Amino acid sequence: MSKNNLAGQSFLQTSSLDQTSADELLLQAKALEELLSVLLSAGYFRARVAALSAFDKVVGGLCWCITSSGIVVDVDVFYDEELALGQKMFVF
Fold this sequence. Notes:
There is one protein chain. The protein is mainly α. The protein has one domain (22-91). It contains 2 helices and 2 strands. It has helices at 22-42, 54-68; strands at residues 77-79, 89-91. A two-stranded antiparallel sheet has the order 1-2. The longest helix is centred in the middle third of the chain and has 21 residues, at 22-42.
């Protein structure tokens, strides 16, 4: 895995409370890089912003995909990366 991954952070750093295996962390990091690559290829360029967390990139990208698809969905999606974790995304 490259040091300059799209995730902007390392998933290989674990705390003493984290019991996730190193293999699982590598799989998660690879899946995140693949997802961010797909978002970039679709036109969601905020996936490159190093200051955003992986959560913000993925959820923001998914919200962007839904609103940019042009397909009418019966929900209102609000996302703001400046809010606290529990308040970042609302689906009405």
